[in-house]
Give the backbone structure.
Amino acid sequence: MKTYAKMSRLYAPTLKEDPADAELASHRLLLRAGMIRKGASGLYSYLPLAWLSIAKIKSIIREEMEAIDAQEMQVPILTDAALWHQSGRWEVYGPELMRIDDRHDHPYALGPTHEESFTDLVRNELRSYKQLPVTLYQIQDKFRDELRPRFGLMRGREFIMKDAYSFSATQESLQECYDQEKDAYARICERAGLRALPVVADSGQIGGDTSVEFMALADSGEAELVYCDSCGFAADTEAAASVIDIPEGPGSGELEKVATPVEGTLEALASFLGVEQGACRKSVALVAEDGGLVLALLPGDHELNDVKAEHAFGHYAMMSANELERAGLVAGYMGPIGASKDLRIVADVSLKGSVRWTIGANEEGFHYLSARPGRDFEVDEWLDLAGAREGDGCPRCGAPLKSARGIEVSQVFQLGTKYSEAMGATFADEDGRERPFLMGCYGIGVSRMLAAVVEQHHDGQGICWPVSVAPYEVEIVPLDVNDDLVWPAAVDLAERLSQAGIEVVLDDRKERPGVKFADADLMGFPFQVVCGKRAVKAGNAELKVRETGERSDVALDELVELLAERVKSQRI
Ligand code: ATP
Ligand code: MG
């Protein structure tokens, strides 16, 4: 029979003060609530409370995987370098791959992901199209020698991942496996209490997506996103080709040079001219990887996106004073007119069609109004360069985009034949021909997911666990364990609740009420039942819902039924 846990016995060493180097709420609160401890940079121990939550995340994953016929198994963490040579990733992976030699000087890597291992596993034994598709997965520690391990569980060097690999005979079958995993990942996020957006990580040749990242929305997230409430579109700002509204600039339509005696920001220029910032052009002077000098022109209210720029120019740098001079550009008043002939002029695609550009005149204190591409200067290339931002139009439906930050908790990917071809993993098709498997891979950061849940569910006092992943569902807080009314009532509640299948922890410590309340809020179990003398005498206890702070007096003999119902309905 399942019984309740006692706070006095729980290994959950709480901290009164905020740990010095913990910037993120999840990092700080998981440390303070006695749930994780750092061993070394990027290496964490999961203490009992965290491990209970991790177990729940794993079981949500397992249920969702079972529903789509994915089978759980395990491959070794240590992987033979020979496999990485076959896939070509031994070199490609770089310093993130943790490499080890055994006593015979044979090289290995600690798996950062396991495409090679799973491809190797099936390549000699999954022989016929009749056996396909097959999806295999594991939940296991992964190792990555991250450049900057940080934020506690968010970016560790050893972390828990669920990784799945599908093997199909046809593209249709791969698509089906991929869609099933993608749908399962959406459900897993939802069940774990995460508000997450599926963000297209790249789009396939045939229109659909071939990789999606699930981003848990959080201000602390590393990814910058734009999304559309109308049609569900979501993308990284660097991947989104948003629709940018370009207001026309001032002027008569004829090229006109005007004095602009303002300090060199676009904001100051726009306000001096009495126009929106978007009506002016931003000029970014850079040197492409091949050494070429480039002037990139953008809507004045948008930034050059780094990833898009890398795409267009390779590893680029901003122009030095010397290079500006060579290009015929005057800092603060840059523009294409009057610049050197060798300067490559590129402009953001959103500007195509705009005919009255406000741009620098390459002369201190002057700008041109109504400069017109094709008439007053040439644009060599129109490129997608501007980072999408809030208010831009959705590329799918045109509605205004919203912006948010996100934490990547999982990713699904159609690999195609990349690994099966490189590693010679084939099956016999209907006509007996050997063909490489079409593969998909699907990863969830289990430990990162725990941190993401805390990022979305906390307040100034501590964590507010959703029931589905809470270490315990109910905490009973007897205010005085020596009181011969309060204590027996609390124990009786704990017993009856656990008999009803609820996970209970009883704060049996001889601590002051203030200490107990603070710890209860910090650890953040979803429901608190406070047993004080006055309430118990009246046949009641106080029920507090951690996340909302809502409190109510409930009769002791109704409490078990009421809580059992509320808890079970929220377990999902
Ligand atoms: P990131 O861009 O954050 O480095 P990734 O795209 O390299 O992640 P994947 O290879 O897609 O990560 O791994 C699958 C999942 O594993 C990720 O979605 C993420 O949730 C998790 N993950 C990846 N790296 C780490 C890490 N260093 N610590 C914790 N979780 C991680
Ligand atoms: Mg990823």
Summary: The radius of gyration is 30 Å. Residues 213, 408, 411 surround magnesium ion (ligand 2) (CB under 6 Å). The chain has a mean pLDDT of 95. The first strand starts at residue 5 and ends at 6.
